Target: SWIM-type domain-containing protein
Amino acid sequence: MEKDEQEKEREFNQIANQLIEGLFRSGRGSEMASIKVDDAKSVALAALYPKTFYRGLELLETRSMYEIQYQNATFFVVKDSPKAGNSGECYYRIEKDGCFCSCPTFIELLEQSSSKLCEHVLAWKLYDGNKDFLANYSENLIHVENLEEMEDYLKWCKLCFL
Model:
């Protein structure tokens, strides 16, 4: 049983790494890179494997945006321009138009945030029963000042359905 789990993890890591490498190659020197996510095992990277998505964000240094296409939906990761006086500091955001996310944990985070600056944010959720990827969206966008906070934010969203 343990061997099966290790094999699945190895296989998933391989797929995730190929996706990230493909994203890096397709986006080099351009303002926007895109990648199609067709394999069910890779479900939107962040939902099952936050570290891979975290690595993906690190690749944004050479462009302002990339898109992830999953089934019929398109999600965008946007790198905001540094604000004046912030000496190169930049923000990352995930956004997509959609319905309000009624997740209590997510609403609580929004109420605590002082950075509600945009209209929509993608909330990543994991349904543990069959590992399907579910996405809902909010009326507000939380700006994330660094990648560690982005990873924590994705973990909070995952906990809502576990």
Notes: The CA atoms of residues 120 and 139 lie 5 Å apart. Strands lie at 32-37, 65-70, 73-79, 92-95, 116-118, 121-127, 132-138, 141-142. The chain has one domain: 2-159. DSSP finds four helices and eight strands in the chain.
